[in-house]
Amino acid sequence: MLSIGAEFFSSSLVTKSLKIKIYRTTILPVVIYGFETLSLALRKERRLRVFENRVLRKTFGPKRDEITVEWKKLHNVELNDLYCSPNSVQVIKSRRMMWAGHVARMEERRGVYRVLVGKPEGKRPLGRHRRKWGDNIKKDLQDVECGGMDWIDVAQNRHRWRALVNAVMNFRVSSNAGNVLTS
């Protein structure tokens, strides 16, 4: 997809703000479609970040160094500062948290809820345990210093859960994310 729009994102005829709006409204939703229902592995997270950084590098272009008067590529930290929005992985994690809260508040007889809390029967395949969807929720809560709690019980309170979802979305920006449950 990047090769199709590479000319558009590197064009100087289109403003950077328009490029960012088009990226957020058309490309990002297509790229992250359905990821909130998957168990996102680190390899997939890295690939999403690489894709996003490639698009942002095309959008913002190279930077001219004032001292050496040479053009250089923007580093990832500089891209994050210029983009000023949650990256695709943060959006996926927050959507996954929203979906988890929605399912956790369902009745116990609903099929989706039974799949969430149920234990499958039979033998598991040999090898390392696969990362489960619920493990991703627990990891996201640990990232915002709210691990060790029963997230299904916390999700019953919509306001507290919404505060956790916002903390996950703004994790890079917020350094005091652990205090979201005190309100």
What are the salient characteristics of this protein?
183 residues; mainly alpha; 56% helix; two-stranded antiparallel ribbon; single chain; 2 strands
Number of strands: 2
* Number of self-contained structural domains: 2
- Ends: how far apart? 43 Å
Residue share in helix: 55-70%
| Rg from alpha-carbon coordinates | 20 Å
Largest sheet: 2 strands, antiparallel
Strand line-up in the sheet with most strands: 1-2
Query: Could you give the order of the helices and strands?
Result: HHHEEHHHHHH
Structural class computed from helices and strand pairing: mainly alpha
DSSP helix count? 9
How much β-strand is present in the residues?
under 5%
Q: Spans with pLDDT under 50 lasting ≥5 residues?
A: 173-183
Shape: elongated
If you average the pLDDT, what whole number results? 81
Describe the structure.
This protein has 183 residues and is mainly α. It has helices at 2-10, 16-31, 42-60, 76-83, 88-104, 111-117, 133-143, 151-154, 158-169, and strands spanning 63-64, 71-72. The chain is elongated and about 65 Å long. The chain has two domains: 2-85, no CATH class; 91-121 and 128-181, no CATH class. Mean pLDDT is 81; it is low at 173-183. It has a two-stranded antiparallel ribbon. The longest helix has 19 residues, at 42-60. It is built from nine helices and two strands, in the order αααββαααααα. The N and C termini lie far apart (43 Å).
